[in-house]
Amino acid sequence: MNKQFTIPFQVTLWDLKPFDETPDSPTLSRGTVKKGFDGDLKGESTGEILMYSAADGSAGYTIMDKVSGELSGRAGTFMMLHSGTHTPNETSRALGIIAPNSGTGGLRKIGGTVEFINDKNGKKLFSTSTCLTNNRCSKLTFTRTFCRRKFPIGNGDLVTADL
């Protein structure tokens, strides 16, 4: 049975620290990102992120999130891995997966792929083939309002990027 979920979320923690600020080169940062979910998925996630940010506002990241909550009446946790890029004035995309065999509790059989799209209307996360059990495949959609963040670049300046 196919079912589509739309799941709003908020970033509740964005804690990145630069570890390479070589002049005339993108800044490399790592840190922790937390999100809260309130919709078909009620819960939260904590993720570890690696990111680069360039002087022109371009950026790229990879993150592993541990999601904990209840989806369609099933409580548990699962791991979501995704990475993507952003360039100013263009649609940003990120692709990833729900890590195989990472689900626990009522979500122990969850799996599939995910796609983030960031455009002028905000962010959306699409799971193109999420299965809660062997016979029930679903599509997850996460949405978040568009926001701006500032990132340090090698010369000590800050660059603004849409997230």
Which key terms come to mind for this protein?
163 residues; mainly beta; AOC barrel-like; 9-stranded mixed barrel; disordered C terminus
Walkthrough of the structure:
This protein has a single domain (3-148), classed as AOC barrel-like (Beta Barrel), CATH 2.40.350. The strands form two sheets. The protein has a nine-stranded mixed beta barrel with strand order 1-2-3-4-5-6-7-8-10. The protein has a two-stranded antiparallel ribbon with strand order 11-12. With 163 residues, the chain is an all-beta fold. Strand 11 (148-152) and strand 12 form a beta hairpin. It is 0% helix and 67% strand. It has strands spanning 3-20, 27-38, 41-53, 59-71, 74-86, 92-98, 112-119, 122-127, 130-131, 137-144, 148-152, 158-162. The protein is elongated and about 50 Å long. It contains no helices and twelve strands.
Please identify the structural class as seen in this structure.
Answer: mainly beta
Helix content: under 10%
State the fourth-level CATH superfamily: SO1590-like
Q: Which outline best applies? A: elongated
Layout of SSEs?
Blueprint (H helix, E strand, L loop, with lengths): L2 E18 L6 E12 L2 E13 L5 E13 L2 E13 L5 E7 L13 E8 L2 E6 L2 E2 L5 E8 L3 E5 L5 E5 L1
Parallel strand pairs: 1-10
Antiparallel strand pairs: 1-2, 2-3, 3-4, 4-5, 5-6, 6-7, 7-8, 8-10, 9-10, 11-12
